[in-house]
Amino acid sequence: MSRALRQALSLLLLACLPALATALWHPRRPAWQSDEVTLSAATAWGSAVLWVDARPDADFARAHIPGAVPLNEDHWDDQLNALLDQWTAKRKIVVYCSSLSCQASHDVARRLRDEAAMPNVFVLQGGWEAWRKQHAP
Amino acid sequence: MTFLPRRIPASLIGLIFLLFGALKAIDPAGFAIDIRNYRLLPWTACVLLALYLPWLEIICGVALLFNRAYRGALVVTAALLIEFIIAYSSARLRGLDIACGCFGHGTQSFHWPVLIMDPFLLAILIYLLKAELRPLSPVIRAGPGPDPE
Angle at Cα B56 formed by Cα B54 and Cα B62, nearest 5°? Predict the structure, then answer.
């Protein structure tokens, strides 16, 4: 058993080396700071926020955060142009999708940073669900 | 006689870990988001795990595939599977409908691997580990007896 544990420890230590290399040089390494922002923090930014709705078009048409612009991966090029018309360098972009567990907002936020070279791109924690809960009649 | 039947499942599990680890290692940023979606750890811990876990899977996969540090690889892969099963079960119990992240960030809301495959693989690993740690019978330990001639 002690041999098994010794070997296990060696494997655990060995994995540290490529992990370190990934942290230093991998082109898709994660940022150390979280890009998520809470609804209260985002609403406190007031008119400096440009809301970006990453949900499918049908969901956006049904309801969305006032002033939000749609941007999903299905119509990326067209919708990105519309977003750029409204964006200024001083504005903070907050992307949201349907709920806490959806991925679309993270993917859209990452593409905005990587492909459109936009600074100050955040993801709304809890997404549309969080907004709806707070603004429910 | 038992060597070959044990090597086959060990190699298959090694191959699975190697492939799944490689898929995660391609996109560590996406994998960090998958880990965060479980809502169990702070972001910094998610980043550390996203950098580390794929490589641990790859190294253990290679070890099982090529029969190097075999016992240690069995222990680590079994521990990883237990961790995956607990994390995913906890997410499901909390009502989170998330992608498991098993095949990397590309897979979305794909639940069967963790629910079916991981417990199955864990059972095989426990069997292999028990077989590996079982003490040798006195006959095998003593080696061949004296020549009757």
Answer: 105
Alpha helices in chain B (DSSP H): 3-26, 28-36, 43-65, 70-93, 112, 118-133, 138-142
Residues A52, B81: Cα–Cα separation, whole Å: 38
* Residue B124 to residue B60: CA distance in whole angstroms: 15
pTM for this structure?
0.77
- Residues of A whose CB is below 8 A from B103: none
The residue of A12, A98, A108 whose CB has the most chain B CBs within 10 angstroms, and thus the best one to mutate to test that interface, is A12
pLDDT in tens, A100-114: 767 789 889 989 998
Structure tokens at A101: 């567990």
- Prediction ipTM score: 0.83
Tell which CATH architecture fits domain A34-134.
3-Layer(aba) Sandwich (3.40)
Domain boundaries defined on chain A: 1-30, 34-134
* Sheet hosting strand A92-96, strand order edge to edge: A36-37, A121-124, A92-96, A49-53, A69-70
